[in-house]
Task: structure prediction
Amino acid sequence: MTEPMPGPDFVQLLDPQGNRVEHPDFSYSGTDADLAADLRDMILARRIDTEATALQRKGELGLWAPLLGQEASQIGSARAVRDPDLIVPSYREHGVAWCAGIDPVDLLTTFRGTGMTDWPSRPENFHFYSFVIGTQTLHAVGMAMAQQRDGVVGNSEPEANGATIVYFGDGATSQGDVNEAFIFAASFAAPVVFFCQNNQYAISEPMVLQSKIPLYRRAAGFGFPGIRVDGNDVIAVRAVTQWAMERARRGEGPVLIEAYTYRMGAHTTSDDPTKYRASTEEDSWRAKDPIERLKSYLLRVGAIDTAWLDALASESDALAERLRAGCLALPVPTFESFFGQVYVDTPELLLRQRDEQLAYEASFEGAR
Result:
């Protein structure tokens, strides 16, 4: 895999060693205190991810889609969103959900099988998680076009304008839905930012087999800008996403952002990445860890210290404890309950299958 070099076509404002670098077109206007807040979000998002993965391994969740390694892409982009923007996630955007104020215990209900995506803490501007690859991009374009027709795009008062951001992975770019979304967005100048987290693998399919050109360059073929950003650099991600969202809010149409990052964990907890990638590759990306990068910078400039980190560690432990307790307090999923979460009116054939299985299970009661 050939990694992009810093330059005009690859936006980086913080290098892997934690040094601030300049870019000819993008800069960060926030403060070091803002970056410390981003670091807190990234660390807590990783802790949510770690605890959820452990809960799945203990049998308390049926599945989990880890975000490990993608914290900068998610936190940096999410913090560029404001009201009345709309957020359309896929199934891995736990850090984005955290920034939107969603209780992580609510997220667990979907993966435990005790709920769908009807989370009580979900704000109105945060769309449901999408588990069908790529379909959410079409939904997002439709939502962005609705924003146009509702008159919240291109107004003289910038604070009143909104846009839509939609998240998907590199694997989704091989789906027809994503390409159809690009066509509609370009045709109608929809105020949508396509945020692709290129984590290098579509499950086990490496990026080099999915596309012979960098993903951001595909946007040119549809007639709108594409830009590649260091997805492990939260400063650069935030700056690029702010630019793209502001452009969309002004009514200047869509943008494709390719956040070049790495999935340091498994695709989901049912996946074994050791089957398709080398440990040396993982080690090289671990050296570019987004959290350690930002932490190094903030420690060097004195924006945080060991006391700050200790306090955050205590906050992280408390969050983990709440997650574990919250998960165990959720109902235990039952076989029959699954049939009530798919159809409004369950077909008779499925009801018969349910009843046959329940009768079969009941036949073993008292056998001991």
Summary: The first helix runs from residue 32 to 57. The beta strands are 86-88, 164-169, 192-198, 201-202, 205-206, 226-230, 255-260. Residues 134 and 246 are 24 Å apart (CA to CA). The chain has a mean pLDDT of 94.
